[in-house]
Amino acid sequence: MRISSRMTLHTLAAVIFTVALLSAYFAQEMKQALVDGEVRNQQAQLDLRVQHFNSGIEQLRSDALLISESPFIVEWFKQSINVIDDANDQISTNTSLPSNAYSSLIEQSFNNLLTRQPDYFQARILSISGDELIRVERQNGVVKVVAAKQLQDKSDTEYFEAAKTLSAGEVYLSDINLNEEYGAIAQPEVTTLRAAAPIFGDNGKLLGVFVINKNVGSFVRATVTNSSVGDVFVLNARGHFIYHPQNEYTFSEQRGTDYTFAKQWPEIAKSLLVAFEKDAFNLATSSLNLDNYVVNARKVSYHKGTTPKYISIIQMAPSSHFSEQTIQALQRQIFAVALLLAVCIALAWFFNRIMVKRIYILGELSNYVAAGGRDLKLPEERGDEVDHVVKAFQSMVDQIDGREKLLHLEKVKIQAIFDAVNSGLITTNEEGYIEEVNQFGAHLLTSEPKTMEGKFIGDYLKSESSINPNVFQAYFALQQEVTQPFHFEVIGLRHTGPFPVQLSVARFTLDRKTFYVGAIEDISERKSIQLSLDKYAKKLEASNNELQSFAYVASHDLQEPVRKIQSFGELLEREEKANLSENGQLYLSRMVAAAERMRSLISSLLELSRVGKDQNQCEWVDVELQCREIIDDLEKLITEKKAEVSIGPLPHVWGEPVQMRRLMQNLIGNALKYVKVNVHPVVEVGVYCPMDVGNELALELEQYPVAFFVQDNGIGIAPEFREKIFVAFERLHGRSQYQGNGIGLAICKKIVEGMGGIIFVDDNPAGGSRFVVALPKAGPES
């Protein structure tokens, strides 16, 4: 029998045997394969839903924290506290709170939150006794503030009691249940998850609780609609139904029926409980193939408090469904196998006849290439498949030649770059012995590349911070100890003496061997420059201190001669004025006036030099109280000018009380002084809103959370002079128009900048000027 015939028969027998074996195997495994495929498909779909659920939970927790820690909520509580019970160390809050700017800010913030998050339908603030203070909710698609008479007592809710025990920065997530209002399940029914966060004052006392209600019904519905086979159930941690195909079984705890998954399917519940108890807090997955059902379950934990919160998603498909699919698949398989068998027989006979005839050509070509031959001499063409194989061999050899040339060029190119780079590069093996070094690196170490190869890296570089002589390994050991980028300095060794080197190291693996490549840089000049800069900074600091001391001493010592000039001038004016000519009296009056101005200038200079010397005496300053005291002090001037002065709610700031009073007195005094003729001054002091300015300045003011303003209806300041007015002794008007020595605003700027803030001036929308003081949030801890 010919070889081709024998190969055909052998192939046919192998195909028949394989088909029979696979058919028997598939008959046993098909059902399990279908089950596994369905389970994987459901788990993949469920993974996306769980990821979306977890993302929503994290967003809910983040929103609750953000709102509960908002400064304007704390300020609102400060204005609303009316009783402090020292005996119980608790704060009682008036449930009938006055409406103010902070109330509007809170309501607007809640409105924006519910508008931005469609799943949020309620946001409320509770007092420490559980009474609702503010509630904003979505009703019929419209977000609105609930009237005070409709507010409720939430003191008996579990989320309120749990939130009161939390620390700052913590959020409590409740069980998922139906929303209840006024002691009954709200209609229409809403599947609800609540996030509750405590609100603390500046002194760490609990002020109240902030609560967000989130509608998680969309997640439940999406989970259920993903199922293509069987039923889906969603349970809470106690086994009660959050979702059941029959709605009367859902939320049985609230409906008073106490219907659970364990009561309906006790054996399945017992098996799932064993699987879930292996991981009580994290995501757990379990698949069960029982006699009557195929069960795919997922446990999703969303809160890890004292009582863990989680839901269980269970899909149950009847086993009969997969048996029917198995029979249908086997029928299709038998038909496909029969067709495949016929095709294989024909192709085996055809190709074996052709391939056997010239199979020896493939052997010859293989031996030729294996021996290193590249110039293939093609056999005579006969129009069969072997001709294509020979040509493919020739093409393969040409490609190998081309790739070898490219690899050679790349190697030359990389070597050229390696040698030309303006930094020292050294490559070592894992033990620290040098494999290669570029010209620049060898030059730094006053050596030659070839003489360095094979030597230990410790002969050229050493570290004082590590006992490991292999500095490349020491670099990675140090890198694992720190989380921030760092500079690793070592000592370079050369015959001219040691020198500082900055080292960066990378590690890579080739053929399961580890190599290191290090970049070295001589930083001698940099360190020398840094040393010079440090010396210059110390000199500059000493010079500034001397200059400040000189200004203080000079202005202090100058007061005595000026006082004598004033005293003698006044004495001369009182006792000898009659003996002086008219010009003499004029000169004397000008001398006394000049001496008074000199005394005022010296006092102002002395005051300017003192600003910032009492920063260690900082404390919390009630700016509003200080402003009201200043108004009392200026009562006579205010009455004379028929001025209107209004003081709005102002924050407490961390600063030196005397300097803060000086700042506010200068600003309010200027507002009363620089007024138009025949115009009664109108002065307003209040909290500054960054939205009142342009985008650029608003972005800058984001780093200054405390800002307030003093505005007037006076003469105003042109934009080109708004920087100049803060320079000492700069005046925009003559003394005949407005009294002063031009140093008040310079003192204001020095006080504000000493507190880390900024002061600027812009237009009052109603006419006049508006001075804005913006300060960073600070306190004793900073």
UniProtKB/TrEMBL annotation:
One GO BP:
osmosensory signaling via phosphorelay pathway
**Known catalysed reaction(s)?**
ATP + protein L-histidine = ADP + protein N-phospho-L-histidine
Q: Which UniProt keywords apply?
A: ATP-binding, Cell membrane, Kinase, Membrane, Nucleotide-binding, Phosphoprotein, Transferase, Transmembrane, Transmembrane helix, Two-component regulatory system
Give the chief site where it resides. membrane
Annotated membrane topology is: Multi-pass membrane protein
Residue ranges crossing the lipid bilayer per the database entry: 334-351
Q: Which GO terms describe its molecular function?
A: ATP binding; phosphorelay response regulator activity; phosphorelay sensor kinase activity; protein kinase activator activity
Cite the HAMP domain residue spans from the record: 353-405
**Annotated EC:** 2.7.13.3
Which InterPro entries would you find in this protein's record? BphY/WalK/GraS-like, HAMP_dom, HATPase_C_sf, HATPase_dom, His_kinase_dom, HisK_dim/P_dom, HisK_dim/P_sf, PAS
Please name one Pfam family that this protein belongs to.
PAS_9
Q: Where is the Histidine kinase domain?
A: 553-779
Where is this gene product found? Cell membrane
Gene Ontology cellular-component terms listed:
plasma membrane
Q: Which PANTHER family match?
A: BACTERIOPHYTOCHROME, TWO-COMPONENT HISTIDINE KINASE
Protein name per its UniProtKB record: histidine kinase
Q: Which organism is it from?
A: Saccharophagus degradans
